[in-house]
Amino acid sequence: MPVDAPANAPVAAPPIVPFEYASAQAPLIVVEGRLGEAAKKARIVIDTGATAPYAAFLSVSRGRALKLPLSDEKTPKGSTAIGDAAQTYREGELSDITIGPIKRKAARVAVMPMIDAMTQQVGKPVDAIIGYEFLRTYRFSIDYPARRIDFSAPAGPDAQALSFHLALKKPLVLVLAVVNGRGPFTFEIDTGATVTSLSPDVAERAGIVANGAGMLSGAGGSVAIRQGDARVSLGPVSYDLSHISISDHLSRISSAAGSQVDGIVGLDFLYRTRLTIDYPASKVWIEDASQPGVK
Q: What pLDDT score does 214 carry?
């Protein structure tokens, strides 16, 4: 039976939930859940970068199907999403949200057209996104190679823990990282980011030479970027990354978050790891899970 959040309460069955990627072009983490007691199954994105104070963000189509009473349209004052376009939304309340063994009752939600647009982009349905507000009472691990999430993950050894802090205005998970042996710099761990991003200042201080250009898309639209290669280290794990994004959009994210954000750790770094985030203890463990013998 599902258990109520918030708590890492013991459950009868192992609270491990499989996930898939939304698509090859948009590899967001998607789990199966339910939105409402009598609702059909829903495809829900797990995104630690979703920081607004709602248990879930629903598509307009799913909100209509659930016949949710909604507020007038609202526009947030500041956003940590990539792109400059404001994301309008309407507030409502959902009877419950269930993912695996977790059940959140009387959940405040935001219904956003952006999620319907995401469905069009990835070619598969995305019904909702959950972020900090849903996850904040849990210690959970994302095993990327195994494609599963454990919502009662054990804590790792204290000696291997990385401390994190939340940004002042938006609860982004901020840790210290090293780039090309330089730093440390303050990076956000964002499970909804496809690629790792750096500010121009970090790129210059780390000696990164731009070798390409492109566009980076997010909830607020697209921004022009430069690209380069670098070795990024987060705790005990280091990877050589190609086509890292270099853009001054991080200055806008820092302003909205109320804290300095020098970079974002994305899927191009995380996909080989087991990432454990302990929100209550403000600790992170990261392991290279791509090697034989790592469990």
A: 66
